Amino acid sequence: MRRSSHLRAHAGQISFPGGRCDAGETDAEAAVREAHEEIGVDPAHVTVLGRLDDAWSGTGNVLVPVVGWLDGPPVFVPSPDEVDELIVAPLRALADPAAYAQEPIEYAGRVFLNDVITYEGHAIWGLTADLVLELLAWIAGDDPSRGPGRADDLAHFVTSDDPTWD
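Structure (tokenized):
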């Protein structure tokens, strides 16, 4: 989703639904609730499959990426307060090495290579791109470690006949 342009943090950036845990909530419960609040996913149709490794944002927040499965076609109802645009991309398109690049960025006086995935004119970058790449590796059972050859390792998914990637 593209976050609303009027939000305090990360306005206009592409991200997954997310937010803080409410008192007494597990990480998975918070993830399902946030997906419902932000993009209208019905919690009754979500099965939590697991989670990816914790991730840290540039603002110092720890993210706990939770992976869920919908038991049927999704019905999205984006919250106009939080979402400017909903972007639905097939896994095969995100795994295409032609959609992947690394761009140098400077942050706090250092230069880093920033992952960028392009889909239909949208640039998915930074932490969200890292999470997409980790998700693809998790699904495939591959080592999700970072490295220059990671995009090349995704090439076999694009040519795979496995319908999971569509």
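Confidence is low (pLDDT under 50) at residues 146-157. The beta strands are 2-3, 46-51, 55-56, 62-63, 66-70, 83-85, 100-107, 110-119, 122-125.
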